[in-house]
Description:
The protein is an alpha/beta fold. The chain is 35% helix and 22% strand.
Amino acid sequence: MHDLDIIVAGDVNLDIIPSSFNGVPKMGQELFVDSMAVTIGGSAANTAIGLAKLGLKVALFSVVSDDQFGRYIMEELEGAGVSTSLMEVTSEANTGISICLTSGKDRAFISYMGNNNLYQPEKLLEKKLNTRHIHVAGFNWQNLIDGYVHLVTELKTKGLSVSLDVGYDDYEQYWDKMHRILAGINLFFPNETEARKLTGEKDVYKALDKLSAVVPVAVITRGSMGAIAKDQGQIWHQPAFKVDAVDAVGAGDAFDAGFLYGYLRDLSTSQCLKLGSACGAMAASSYGGGAAAPGIAELEDFLIKHCGKSEALKSEVG
């Protein structure tokens, strides 16, 4: 019996998210917005919170600063039900901050790495890994690529299942190492831009074919075009749910959480896609990264509303 359902490894920071706006101010000007959210951010933290809100036993492995923002982050993680027992605390850097510029459909960031500069993925191997699954939220690939190779190789040796969300980078610089990483994981979550960049394919389905030749389950998120996946030679499609999107920050992380929730319950890839897409759509409907991800009851209500009772998949989320 495992203590945890899943460990999430990766980044954590503070997000500052202004409400949607048109353009950015020129130097010497000031731009006013209707609202501004301050929340925990970072792909790993968002995914961990999303998983905890769905009722999974989850721990986050990351580095957090020993400052007032770092203490706030730890309190918020614990309050959301995420175990901080694997977290490393440092006094060598301040808390990282991202200013998230969002249009609802897409997002851009102005970021200070801070505590995340001290993150070393391979240090997870020094922790007690009493879990069913490990999800790696990859970032800073140029500096951490060797650590990711070592981590994934060792986790595979230990027989642990692993998923990866890659983040955007110039992967062609170290394709051989990326290939080794992909060959060691069970489940891969790139978005369409990342999948094309990784494979060099302009056609998303050719990119999916290439990825699925290496990874058992390859999933590509496509924003308003929904999501596609391939496993055991079968391609699955999930249209995007129609919602009023206001904040794209954290929507992909919420998708990962929903998909992983189904994956860890041995649901079909088609069912996992539906859960992931629903969670991503719900997160995009309000501001705040992981804080906007749904709980079980909210997810079930959403599925009933958008799919009808006969397709509400109550057994998947109950």
